[in-house]
Amino acid sequence: MTDLDLLASIEDSTVVATGADAWVLGGFVELVPANTITSQFELRYLSIKNLDHNTIYEIVLYAIEGEIARIRVAKNENINIIITPTRTITIAANSQIQARAASKLGGSVVTRGGVLYYEYERDKQ
User: According to DSSP H, which parts of 1-125 are helical?
Assistant: First the structure.
């Protein structure tokens, strides 16, 4: 098994807004553009930073296969970056990954810092 690859650095972040009300998902936001990962892959970890409220967040990830992961994280005043395991199904090569978020408070912002993924084809080399 090869090492995990990091897609996007902490500085190269995507902002995902929650819905205005509690536990309402916000709009779709692209995390991984189509044709970025050219072999089948799995997402293994999601790095999240700059959560704007001390509350519970839910992040839902989507690919062409539909919903591929649902992650809940809690933020308090001592946490600025959360790295959470995110084991997904095998995702088709060249797939776009999108995210939506919700929070217990509503009206929040989630800033994604990076995605660690595992690419299958590299195992065969």
Answer: none
